[in-house]
């Protein structure tokens, strides 16, 4: 039995969450501010949202970012499934240490290093920088996150189910696709969402590996933020926060339902 | 089992090309010198000339970039202050994150799940946007000073200061500290605490003698997961720090984008990576242990 939260526990949780949420709440509230001055309240208005819809630079950047995210997250999840299977199933193989090092290192490595090294690769290979170089870079980095998420689920999956299917005459690939994959599907979906969100959010790696015509939303926002605080940025940010929170809360609710039914 | 090795072949090859190979390019370029050309560095490896090309290439490599960096006090200062910011940030994060994770683990199952989602949502929310939110708060005319003025205090000039950088680091990385600690505390067997109390420990003694030592893997994971990327952080010192806030991630960015000095940017990357090699290796061992 857990000994319920004490007053100290309640206070630390409340203060912590307050610290995490206060800036986000203020940002959202001030996106509805009629005044051009971000920090002076001038009445309720949605004019900055209207401004966003007319800002072709922002809309272009959103479109680029969505395409990069969709493609890179899908590639990363596909490769992530393969990598997770290799790590979870095949005990020791030659190169395993190197393989797992390459999976875990990008999780903690400073983004400036990843961005710079990928850029040098594209320059050395003579690939012009643009949409595809950003997409490849994002797929590489998010592949590692996807692998870790899927591997954690695969480690708990009872492999005898897949073996049973194969004993009954199912070929290995089809046994994996028909038995294992449906069982790890929630983790695969979570991995895809994580990869997509990370791609949506990335400024540093995109700045290094992008070229003309492929400005992502974070790159556009960063150049505007450098010029100063601006209510239109608040409006774009609020839209982004709304989309991401809806996704995370939905994923959390689905998990909770599974928890209850289990 | 050798059977599933082919499954790993595609991601293995992918990571070799897009992750491992680029590091050799960074190391190579850090030994080159800058020239006015595209790409802006020399020598270039010309394998069409065979062995002669390779020998000529190796002969032209030099450590000039490193000696240049070592002679410049600004780089040394940036290096030391990166470590300082990351260390202070990690210490504050532990002080805030541990009580928060411990508090969360004390709630009932339903509340725990909700609190967990509440900590994860900001973790998924755009990093850039969360730092941007602090600019509006710390501005000289910003919300913090408006609140202080209401109490006839201030004004505080926090934006573009070292304090602002620390606030930004702590704010941005808090979920990274809370989640690993929470994961360990949540799995802890409650009967251990009961046993300690049955044997005469006060609740406080039981915490320090049982709960805290057992949560050490979570603390280590959280601290590494925060410290490593903070050393190379770019966005936070760039947006919240002043022009005098030196950090290696920012130095690398400036060398590359503003000064177009690619060899210097690469040398900074090599130094950064060399410094972080030990913490990264520790982190990997920990992760591999947790997952297998």
Description:
The complex is a heterodimer of chains A (about 260) and B (about 290). Chain A has a single domain, classed as MetI-like (MetI-like fold), CATH 1.10.3720.10. Chain A has 11 helices and no strands. Chain A has helices at about 5-30, 45-55, 55-90, 95-110, 110-125, 130-155, 160-165, 170-200, 205-210, 215-225, 230-260. Chain A is globular. With about 290 residues, chain B is mainly α. Chain B folds into 2 domains: about 20-60, no CATH class; about 65-290, MetI-like (MetI-like fold, Orthogonal Bundle), CATH 1.10.3720. Chain B has 14 helices and 2 strands; from the N terminus they run αββααααααααααααα. Chain B has helices spanning about 5-30, 50-60, 65-70, 75-105, 110-125, 125-140, 145-150, 160-185, 190-200, 205-215, 215-230, 235-240, 250-260, 260-290, and strands at about 35, 40. Chain B has a two-stranded antiparallel sheet with strand order 1-2. In chain B, a hairpin with a 6-residue loop joins strand 1 and strand 2. In chain B, helix 13 (about 250-260) crosses helix 14 (about 260-290). Chain B is globular, with a radius of gyration of 24 Å. In chain B, about 45% of the residues are buried. The mean pLDDT of chain B is about 85.
State the main characteristics.
heterodimer; A: 262 residues; mainly alpha; MetI-like fold; 11 helices; 79% helix; globular; B: 292 residues; 2 domains; two-stranded antiparallel sheet; 2 strands; 76% helix
**If you compute it from the alpha carbons, what radius of gyration of chain B comes out, rounded to the nearest whole angstrom?**
24 Å
CA radius of gyration of chain A: 22 Å
Shape of chain A: globular
SS-derived structural category of chain A: mainly alpha
Query: Can you tell me the number of structural domains of chain A?
Result: 1
